[in-house]
Design a protein that fits this description.
The structure is a homodimer. Helices cover about 40% and strands about 15% of the residues of chain A. By secondary structure, chain A is of the alpha/beta class. The complex binds adenosine-5'-triphosphate (ATP) (2 copies) and magnesium ion (2 copies). One adenosine-5'-triphosphate sits at the interface of chains A and B.
């Protein structure tokens, strides 16, 4: 059974791409077969592997021009990448109102996982909650939301929850928000305590044990075209994403 | 002559709100009369002063329900705030296609500055380049763009420049991108060198001398309902924003 995980928060710059890349890499290092899917027209994950405007990408797949397996790059042992293209932003404009357009990604992933053994699919979502993100929410079983431990970040989480409720009712009854985790964490009492108390009160058991500390090595690794484990294996960033991946591994979904 | 400055980058989470709040405060401490304008429906600046859903706000002003001066809060010596409301997001949806809707903010600010002595207007923009941001670009003389010193951040800057070229041609010939500055800066050679070299080559003289270092006090100060100068006057954050404000003060626009 393939676990399909979407990393989503429509607030920008909270560490979705950094988390998708390094959670997928950590799971691959643990021996899991992982497919990393770049669903953000900014294509930051695709670029972080040094791939520029790939001829075959997720946009062509959702336009049904070719199957998803023809887009796949092998980027590390046990880790495959489905790249993105900046032209993908047009998908959002051209498909509004067509209910069928919400299911395309799910159908493609179902076809792929029927033929190929994949343990995890990790989807990097764009900073918006439109048709592209809805495709991710329909295809996924589990949503994980990165957020900064700061008062303003609560709004972003509430938007994600509203979207999940809508999708769960109409499009995908399996979808669950499995966890929220802090990124760029400084462990400061003043900000973290407020936000942690708010989360424990309103969304008990959602906050994961692992927080990702602010770590400049995480900012540097994409420029070196590497994940954090290849770039700086002893860093806080590597340790934190290793323990986050293990925590996700243990949160097995209900059958 | 009032200088109208917009802090804009459609990439999310790069420090627009943190910069608008602290540049405005630093200018006010220097004795300038400053109006801080929250133009982001997320209303983070408004909230950081502890103001929740103010009855009169910039949304009502742009709907021409009341003049801008009826929305103003005095938040510190020499510093006035025009608050925002989350309902303002509707303005984006309801006004597409109406060219008159791009000029409303400018008209209101012109009326205000004709009657009241204001040295600086600082506008915090939302993470998008739609009608709301266009109002800011039409009203402003100067744009300043915060960005993280990271490879992916260049795309955001190019989008801002494209928008400025369009606005300059059709709506506001005075508009200029006056400067770009790094936020959440770690001073690391690997990332900063690449980005600095790229900027010097493609956009010479745009990068300001001041970078804002990563500083947890900047993250904490909104929870304490204070700007960085009141909250942690000796911190890196306070020193950096003080020198950034002074740098902006010296970049006097062409008459
Ligand atoms: N733990 C961390 N420590 C230091 N820097 C970080 C950390 N996590 C993310 N960053 C940096 O923060 C910036 C934003 O991160 P990232 O691109 O992963 O966010 P995102 O949510 O994917 O953004 P977008 O909304 O644009 O897709 C990048 O410069 C990244 O290097
Ligand atoms: N120099 C800094 N050091 C540490 N944290 C910072 C710094 N600048 C900004 N931050 C933090 O980064 C996060 C994003 O900052 P901010 O809200 O100012 O960005 P923004 O561009 O206004 O975001 P949005 O696109 O959502 O409007 C906040 O948690 C803020 O506290
Ligand atoms: Mg991203
Ligand atoms: Mg902001």
């Amino acid at each position: 059974m393939t676990r399909i995980i979407a990393i989503s928060n429509q607030k920008g710059g909270v560490g979705k791409t950094t988390s998708s890349l390094n959670i997928a890499s950590a799971l691959a290092i643990e021996g899991k077969k992982v497919l990393l899917l770049d669903l953000d027209p900014q294509s930051n994950i695709t670029k972080s592997f040094g791939i520029i405007e790939p001829e075959k990408n997720i946009y062509g797949v959702l336009l049904k021009e070719y199957p998803i397996k023809e887009t796949v790059f092998k980027v590390r042992d046990n880790l495959l990448l489905v790249p993105c293209s900046k032209n993908f932003a047009a998908f959002e404009r051209n498909n509004s109102g067509d209910i069928e357009s919400f299911y395309i990604l799910k159908e493609q992933l179902d076809e792929l996982t029927a033929k190929t053994h994949i343990d995890f699919i990790v989807i990097d979502c764009p900073p918006s909650l439109g048709i592209i993100s809805t495709n991710a929410y329909v295809a996924a079983d589990e949503i994980y939301t990165p957020m900064e431990a700061q008062e303003f970040s609560i709004d972003g989480l509430e938007e994600v929850i509203k979207t999940i409720i809508k999708v769960k009712k109409r499009l995908n009854e399996r979808i669950e928000l499995k966890g929220v985790f802090f990124t760029r964490f400084h462990g400061r009492k003043l900000i973290s305590r407020d936000v942690q108390e708010y989360l424990q009160e309103h969304f008990p058991n959602l906050l994961l044990n692992t927080s990702i500390r602010e770590c400049v090595r995480l900012k540097e690794s994409p420029s070196a075209r590497q994940d954090i484990f290849a770039f700086a294996p002893e860093s806080n960033g590597a340790n934190d994403y290793r323990s986050l991946a293990l925590e996700i591994l243990t949160k097995v979904p209900r059958p």
